[in-house]
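hey so u asked for the seq, here:
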Amino acid sequence: MTTISIRPACLEDAADLAALHGQSFTPAWDTAAMGGFLRQNAKAMMAVKADQPMGFTLARLAADEAELLSIAVSPQGRGQGLGRALLLGLFVMLKEAKVQKLFLEVASDNKVACHLYEHIGFIRIGMRPKYYANGADALTYSLSLG
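ran it, structure tokens below
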């Protein structure tokens, strides 16, 4: 059985991050967008199994806060705890960067993601009506890392 490793993502991973994003979201962020995030004040973790990208988390930092921009797990990696492992790895990275609070938005109908966030300890702090292009509402969450 091949082990899945969780490691920091770097600029050279931008194409893999874009491919993973495309497996989970429409519209997807392309390689240039991912590279732009990684060149700026962003932190990312990536899950890899036998040199195959399996998932990632991406957060943008601002002072002592961060926003979770995206989390994606490949279809073949879902249901194995990768989302949780990626988030926990990201939390360590963010704490090292002196981040105190992490925020996110998630589609209100994405029950799997909402359950994951709540199980890890995120607190729902609000809702943004019709936030997404398809008209779906966004739920906003925060997590204290300090």
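The chain has a mean pLDDT of 96. The helical segments are 14-22, 31-39, 82-96, 111-120.
lmk if thats what u needed
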